[in-house]
Amino acid sequence: MSLYLENILKQKDITPTAMRLLVLDYFLKQSTALSLSDLESGFDYSNRATLFRTLKTFEKKGLLHSINDGHITVYALCMDNCSEEQHADSHMHFCCKNCKKIYCMRSVKTPNINIPSGFNAEKLDIIIHGLCNGCTENLN
Q: Of 59, 92, 88, 61, which is closest to residue 76 (Cα–Cα)?
């Protein structure tokens, strides 16, 4: 497994370190986006600054993308075709108002938005707010 994780990092031109391997492995096991606090609570012994630098390195190199719902920034794994030069993962996100988890909605098509001439769109953020499947089931 470690060689697999190392290869993922090397493909993104990220030097594999013990912490980076642990963080990548942790993200691969998640189904929702994670905040710095979520990540920190997943490790018994971790340095918040090191975790933050790891998140920012992963984001810069196209391994993670950030989502800001207006209150907190969370991070999720990017698609394989993201790179340091361009994040190609424009998709919707779903924020559950009950459990506060944020899900990438890659299967939901984003609308085609025509912007005025002279404007250059670089990123589209669409966040859907409501109840996730798990929280909806718990209400019934």
A: 59
The beta strand positions in 2-113, using DSSP E, are 34-35, 64-68, 73-77, 92-96, 102-105
Specify the pairing of strand 92-96 against strand 126-130.
Answer: parallel
- Can you give the pLDDT of all 140 residues of the chain as single tens digits? 689 999 999 999 999 999 999 999 999 999 999 999 999 999 888 899 999 999 999 999 999 988 887 788 999 998 777 777 776 667 788 999 999 888 888 788 788 888 999 998 877 778 889 999 989 888 76
Full-model pTM: 0.81
Location of structure tokens 């090191």: 50
How far is 50 from 113, CA to CA, in rounded Å? 38
Task: Kindly compute the dihedral angle of the four CA atoms of residues 127, 95, 56, 63, in this order, to the nearest 10 degrees.
Answer: -80
Q: Which of 88, 84, 31 is nearest to 56 (CA)?
A: 84
